[in-house]
Amino acid sequence: MKRLSALLLANFLCVQLFAQQTQKPMIYGSSWMAITGKPMAATAGAMIFQQGGNAVDAACAMLAATCTMWDTLSWGGETQALIYNPKTGKVIAINAMGVAPTGATVEFFKSKGYNFPPEYGPLAATTPGTPGGLIYMLMNYGSMSLKQVLAPAMHMAAGYAIEAQSANTMARDHDMLATWPYSKKVFFTHPGEKRETPEPGEIFVQKDLLNTLTKMVDAETAALKKGKSRKEALMAAYDRFYKGDIAEEFVRGSKEQGGLITMQDLAKWKPIEEQPLSINYKGIEVYKLQQWTQGPVMLQALNILENFDLKGMGYNSSKYIHTLYQAMNLSFADRDFYYGDPYANTGQPMKGLLSKEYAKQRAALIQYDKNDAKIGPGNPYTFEGRINPYIRLLKERGFEMDTTKRNFAPKHDLGMNSPKDADYQDRLWRGTTSIEAADKDGWVVSVTPSGGWLPACIAGNTGIGMSQRMQSFVLDAALNPFNVVAPGKRPRVTLSPSMFLKDGKPFLSAAVQGGDTQDQNLIQFFLNVAEFGMNVQRATEAPNFNTNQLWLSLGGSKISDREPKPGQILLNSNTPQNVREELKKLGYTLSFTERTSGPINAVYFDTKHGTLWGGSSNHGEDYGIGW
């Protein structure tokens, strides 16, 4: 009777929660939807839609605008996207992740005293992927010219009213920016004054970036005048960036400041169109990027969670939170050891990792009376009929094989006594932006671009901030044999857009910023809709939690800065007292904040009415426009 009463109370609280007004309104549209990290950048997408562009065109315009606004990324970073093509009914993946440059070896970084490649500066830079990724998407799936989709960004580069968030970030990072001459040239708009960086609301001009974008557009225009096709003209712009005078200045400026990127590195790099990974969760097809991202974590966790009655547990009850926490930890333990660039190492056991049978085995490991602080990687090779070739490395790492459960558990408690601090949380959450675009013809785009964020080291007189994604590599194969730094290799990144189909048609599209929390937030967002019936805006705002029981992908030069913190959980400040007490009894160390849900951006496809519903979290400055 007591258990029935508890369930009735939980269901009552769920109904009350879901009936509450959201802090942001739902966005409705019948023609198109444009959502991203800044209102001005969403407006850029709306402008392209109003000119007749499709969702890919609009997504490219928003990408260009967010890079120009330094919305926690810039033009020298990386772009990764999922695109639903209504002409084929298929989801495709765009891999525009840069690679480690010539000379980026384990020996090189260890000789400089690094435990991981550095967080900032020219040695943190992979080759830029965003310009190539944007041009590739536009060339193959868009309808407009580069000149058209870059017009809003170019207008902004000529001068726009900078918003407080970016302006204050520049002020905060003043001392580091001052160490790089080309960054100082761009960001110190008031040299010698008390505040040298831009003030909120002032017109921020980026002459060098405008010159770079103009060169790309000029290359396209010149090719069209010569009678070249649209694709050939776009490739002319691409080649000018990666092989022409833009590349020369980028490389010169990088090398002058101690960077490794060469002309050959830029010329050899290309974006890749690839097959996304997917699983079926209770009739919904879930699509993620391949294992060079953390995206498969969401697929693994959902496979595990499919074995439980989540709805019956009650939304954000202690049992629900505990079950999700354990499922995510199991999946992250596999991410931390088995994920990496499939083009550099072809042996990742993804078939085993994503099998329903493996998920059942992992689900059976969940203990209901306590948090399992010794969760380690599983042995997915047995589900592929292969022998795990990394048993020796796992033993070196301090893991021993539990033959009864086929699970590798640490002999000691990694990170159990590591203090939680603001720097750690910043690295866990470290942001980027996200882009969602959809149109009435059925095109859907979900992008999580990043890299080149503030404080950015700008490459010469290009106006382009270099990526900092090298820090996501490891230097020790015992940490992850698939993610050891090497020239020409992609780091295993956190960037992770999502797409969901139901009955073969788009159901949801979503992405979020936030480093290692991206798939944590997206899993909970999806379950909010799929299990608890929330609308898309409520699902983006609903309180969730973050686990710290994983290896950080960003920041921290010491091993101890990045190792897991078992049992640490970040909860929403509104978490009921009884849930807090129950989680403490399970061995969790609790911390609280008002910010736990994102910012998530998403689109729901109302097939009954043929309309688009946009959701944008109440955290951050993310914004959407629909028509």
Q: Would you give an account of this structure?
A:
The protein starts with a helix and ends with a strand. By secondary structure, the chain is α+β, with helices and mostly antiparallel strands. The chain is 38% helix and 16% strand. A seven-stranded antiparallel beta sheet has the order 1-20-19-15-14-9-8. The chain has a seven-stranded antiparallel beta sheet with strand order 7-4-3-13-12-2-21, covered by helices on one side. The longest helix has 21 residues, at 318-338. The protein is globular and about 65 Å long. It contains 24 helices and 21 strands.
Radius of gyration: 23 Å
Overall mean pLDDT score? Answer: 92
Classify the beta-strand content into a percent band: 15-25%
Tell me, briefly, the overall form.
globular
Strands side by side in the biggest sheet: 1-20-19-15-14-9-8
Number of helical elements: 24
Ordered list of secondary-structure elements with their pairings:
Blueprint: H1 2-19, E1 27-29, E2 32-36, H2 39-50, H3 55-68, E3 79-85, E4 90-96, H4 106-111, H5 130-141, H6 146-157, E5 160-161, H7 164-172, H8 174-177, H9 181-187, E6 203-204, H10 207-225, H11 230-242, H12 245-256, H13 263-268, E7 272-274, E8 277-281, E9 284-288, H14 296-305, H15 310-313, H16 318-338, H17 350-353, H18 356-363, H19 391-396, E10 399-402, E11 407-410, H20 422-429, E12 435-439, E13 444-447, E14 498-502, E15 505-512, H21 518-530, H22 536-541, E16 546-547, H23 559-562, E17 568-572, H24 577-585, E18 589-593, E19 600-606, E20 611-616, E21 623-626
Parallel strand pairs: 17-18
Antiparallel strand pairs: 1-20, 2-12, 2-21, 3-4, 3-13, 4-7, 5-6, 8-9, 9-14, 10-11, 12-13, 14-15, 15-19, 16-17, 19-20
Helix pairs in contact: 2-3, 3-5, 3-6, 5-11, 6-10, 10-11, 14-16, 14-18, 14-21
